[in-house]
Amino acid sequence: MGYCLGYALIEGGDAAFSMDASAVTFGPGALAEVGEEAAALGLRRVALFTDARLAELAPVAEARRSLGRAGVDVVVYDTVHVEPTDRSFAEAARFAAEGRFDGYVSVGGGSVIDTCKAALLYATYPADFYAYVNRPIGEGREVPGPLPPHIACPTTTGTGAECTGIAVFDDTGRKAKTGIASRKLRPTRAIVDPWATRTMPKSVVAASGFDVVTHALESYTARPYSTRPRAPEASKRPMSQGANPWSDMGCKSALELAGRYLLRAVSDAEDEEAREGMAWAATLAGIAFGNAGVHLPHAMSYAVSGLCRSFTMPGYPEGEPLVPHGVSVVVNAPAVFRALAKTSPARHLDAAARLGADVRGAGPEDAGEVLATHLGGMMRAAGVPNGLSGVGYGETDVDALAAGTIVQARLVSNAPCAVDEDVLRGLFRGAFAYW
């Protein structure tokens, strides 16, 4: 039928794509503006979501001071669970429902921001917990109407949660991650202050940084939006619509920034330029994947996180097994891109080059290996575990990992080719170790 900005238009496929984003304020010291932003939205009583560790640190103190100067009443909820669960979402929702707040502020990483999204949803439109959860685990019910204002202030450089309508949690009964997805969950405003990331330990910088990388890689190599069947009406177009010209721009820039700054940010906590560069990369990748969606590395990560038995990572809360989200994604990524590069060799090779790989002399047939090898080298340099074996998995886990992935329909369907459990088993086997 023709081409739209490099995308072939296919009979019966979607000929249009949508562009949605939170209003973003970015820059060192921007967190001091949260009070003015809240007042401009007409807020008088807000819930400030954070976690127990951050509650004692400078970013939360700065947010509280700013809100106080603006005359906004603040009630702090500081019991957010790192890597949220169905139970922790439900507890946060009860707090939100009882507090009668007219707005919300979240100061923290993806766990904090996602918990705030879920809490304000259930407080505004009470329902059975699984009513809004993605199919097939939940009903996938649409959010009934508008939600209260939410100002998201990230303190990590990775999740992009401040720019997306997605809230992810661990389903403790099924031992798998899943989530809630709706454009209406997207925060009203994002205040991205690179100075707020100064308290991140090295391991958190690495994990969140690889979340940026995989967001950009997956969105850039996802199923093209034009191959998705045309929605019966505009409002039914999925939020994760596939690769598109709008998201491509953010992906390309985010990959270049991560290639330049990720390892610097991990190795030197005082490298302000690197922290600022990664904060901007996270914002761009968040906007990109918030419109394109991610695919198999993230789908596989949900099972990796949910089935974790004993792995712990320095810098994260002790006392319970935990594979940090960015780690659970990137341990799968080289295997996926090595196997799927044939679906779009030019994009995979371009992505490798933007991350800093030497692609001189490489042809389409080399794209997967070049990208996988370079990504594995970045992981090793950052001290990330060596594939699935590094986080405690082996051959006996393959069936359970594949079964926990195939139910992530929103993500699996966004892959650039058809995938079943046999394919997933092969990808998990290829992800055991890279060096």
UniProtKB/TrEMBL annotation:
Task: Name the InterPro entries on file.
Answer: ADH_Fe/GldA, ADH_Fe_C, ADH_Fe_CS, Alcohol_dehydrogenase_Fe, HOT
Fe-containing alcohol dehydrogenase-like C-terminal domain location = 240-424
Q: Which CDD domains match?
A: HOT
Show the catalytic activity: (S)-3-hydroxybutanoate + 2-oxoglutarate = (R)-2-hydroxyglutarate + acetoacetate; 4-hydroxybutanoate + 2-oxoglutarate = (R)-2-hydroxyglutarate + succinate semialdehyde
Domain Alcohol dehydrogenase iron-type/glycerol dehydrogenase GldA: from-to ranges: 23-194
EC class, as a word, reads: oxidoreductase
| Region (Disordered) location | 224-245
Which EC number(s) does UniProt give? 1.1.99.24
Keyword Repeat part of the UniProt annotation: no
Tell me its family.
Belongs to the iron-containing alcohol dehydrogenase family. Hydroxyacid-oxoacid transhydrogenase subfamily.
Q: What is this protein called?
A: hydroxyacid-oxoacid transhydrogenase
